[in-house]
Write a structure and sequence with these properties.
By secondary structure, the protein is α+β, with helices and mostly antiparallel strands. It has two domains: 75 residues, Glutaredoxin (3-Layer(aba) Sandwich), CATH 3.40.30.10; 113 residues, Glutathione S-transferase Yfyf (Class Pi), Chain A, domain 2, CATH 1.20.1050.10. 53% of the residues lie in helices and 6% in strands. Helix 1 crosses helix 6. The chain binds glutathione (GSH). The site of glutathione (GSH) has 12 residues, from helix 1.
């Protein structure tokens, strides 16, 4: 297997944490996103969407999308279980992971991209859309705090891939000046999850 990633990017980090949780270490090629290495033909032949991370499996399949890659890694190394053991747990984890991705990670990323113009060499940017996206993230974050008021992890009693998505989204948001870590349950859960060995 071979991983193509930018290990400091939010989605690169998601797969890096899953690999560490699973005790796996892979040969890795770092892709320089700022320099546009992900836009070169060589890279888009692996992922036509032109985003990292991409995992090349031993059979030569190129997998992109962090969750698809993580599911594949879980099929290779089942423990610790990150996607749920029962139908109900799997659905709950999927629900919270999608909520974290669609309602927090996306607006945080859109705010970052549109307010900084970091990728303006490859996409249209709109300051207004950046501001709206930052507001959406601020207005949504309480949903996760409310859930954590009655649950040790975001999708229930055990650590899961949904915790990885949510925790790394909040870490990234803080690093780029969108501090969403102010609500009490979210703050203590974030400290607990971020102190796992896999996050360091
Ligand atoms: N849904 C994809 C998102 C991948 C993604 O947006 N990756 C970012 C880094 S976090 C990227 O490659 N950005 C480069 C660009 O937009 O040119 C996933 O889950 O892996």
């Amino acid at each position: 297997m071979h991983l193509y990633t930018q290990s400091t990017s939010p989605n690169g980090r998601r797969v890096a944490v899953v690999l560490k949780e699973k005790g796996l270490s892979l040969p890795t090629t770092e892709i320089d996103l700022r320099a546009g290495e992900n836009l070169l033909d060589e890279f888009t032949a692996r992922n036509p969407i032109g985003r990292v991370p991409v995992l090349e499996t031993d059979s030569g399949l190129y997998l992109s999308e962090s969750i698809a890659i993580s599911r594949y890694l879980e099929s290779l190394v089942s423990e610790p279980n990150l996607f749920g053991r029962t139908g109900e747990a799997q659905a709950r984890i999927e629900m919270w992971n999608r909520r974290a991705e669609l309602n927090l990670m996306m607006p945080v990323a859109q705010a970052f991209r549109n307010l900084t113009g970091i990728f303006k060499d490859r996409e249209k940017v709109s300051k207004e859309w950046g501001e709206i996206s930052a507001e959406v993230a601020r207005d949504t974050v309480h949903v996760f705090d409310d859930q954590l008021a009655g649950s040790p992890y975001i999708a229930g009693d055990t650590f899961s891939v949904a915790d990885i998505t949510l925790a790394l989204t909040l870490t990234f948001a803080r690093a780029v000046g969108q501090d969403l870590l102010q609500l009490p349950h979210l703050v203590s859960w974030h400290e607990k999850v971020s102190s796992r060995d896999s996050f360091t």
